[in-house]
Amino acid sequence: MAAAAAVVEGEVRRDMWGQEYRTSSAECAAALDAYYAAFLSFGRGRVAAALRAAAADPTCALAAAHAAHAAAPRDPAGAAAFLAAAAGNLGNATEYERAVFGTLSAMVGEERNEEVALERHFELLKKFPRDILSLKRAQLICFYLGKPELSLKFVEQVLPENQDQNYIYGMLAFPLLELGKMDEAERAARKGLAINKNDVWAQHNLCHVFQQECRFREATEFMESCSPSWVACTSFLLTHNWWHVAVCYLEAESPLQKVLDVYDQNIMKELEKSDCEAAEVYLNALGLLLRLYVRGHVHHAKERLTTFLDALKEESIWHVEWLLDLLILWALSSTDELKSAHNMLESLKSRVSSMDKDRQQVMQKAIQLAEAVYEFGNGEHKKVFDILGPNFDALGYKMIGASDEQVDVFNEVWYTVLISAGETSNAIDVLGKQIRKREGAPFLWRLLAKAYSLDGRGSDALVASEKANALQAAYTF
């Protein structure tokens, strides 16, 4: 009788970091390990592994909670059922399982609240500092709220207990680079790669450093050498890492065909895979096409947009991510799909109006940027300037869930708008400040040359143009 009760309650096991949970199923335990590994390595099979764990032992609260989180983006009803199953099994759950349930219920439950979820993650990690899966989730929340300082605080809180861990240094590097601490970020990423050269997140973060510091050749050579390790990555990270390669070629003003080849062969080919997540590919594809568009490669951008424009009008992919919504809005408005673009803009406004007051206030900036992107696609540059004002800086719009490099394209939009709207003095001032941060970016010098020329400063324009040409020649690869 006692043996039977033990089976019902589940055997106490320890996960790969020593946290205790209950399951009587070896298959459930193996699937949870696979889920942990896939989640931290951005592996394609993480959702399937979480669902497999929950199916193998319906009485395991931990497995059900993870399944709820994994299912939530695509199957909210299924996520609710998993969360209810986890709640129903909390009576026999360990302290760790209850803590994980608390964090995940605040993320995907009916009363979801990101601030509460962060507080609960902070408490969980105080008790269970080896749980780097929960650390990764906390950092993702911080990213989508635009809180790199808090993300760094989370990782620093548990770093002493995890110095031997594969993934901790990549997780340290990202908030450091988001806070502009490039030397520290590079050291952290390299330390992670010394432990595991195939840590795709550490690779990605080192590329961020190279890109920000205009070390474009170093970035492309490094990332292309790492690319075989991306095969098993999610659609997002696989195409995002290739997006970084393409942007580095573009910023170095390499032959345009190199950029287009990465787009065609390494980003869009992902759509041919049976397990592809199309929205994740569109995010990176559109982010690259907008950069091409801003640099005057309008034909190439629009030509490639037409191949998946119908998919962008499908509301099923709207509101997956704010950044994707903004890019879709630009794509629709720039291709004269104004009805769909207007519907998207109104839908975003409605989405914000349903948020609590504090969140509404924060997201008003996202709506402002959405309105500007809509007008930019529509060719109304003066309206863009009127919406954004003279002191716009895209880095203040991180609440859309974007890295510095992802959000920087909106600064590039703004620079071109300043020039076309006749705000040449403002453009010269702003571009001068940006060049002091990234002196090695030829595009910035070309924009500065154009602004000088329009301002009647021909000799300054010539100097800026020669600087751009010298950089381009030095980067040729």
TrEMBL record:
Q: Which UniProt keywords apply?
A: Repeat, TPR repeat
- Judging by the UniProt lineage, the source's domain of life is Eukaryota
Q: Which Gene3D superfamilies match?
A: Tetratricopeptide repeat domain
Q: Which SUPFAM superfamilies match?
A: TPR-like (SSF48452)
Q: Which InterPro entries match?
A: TPR-like_helical_dom_sf (IPR011990), TTC38 (IPR033891)
Coiled-coil stretches: none
Family to which the UniProt record says this protein belongs: Belongs to the TTC38 family.
Q: What is this protein called?
A: Tetratricopeptide repeat protein 38
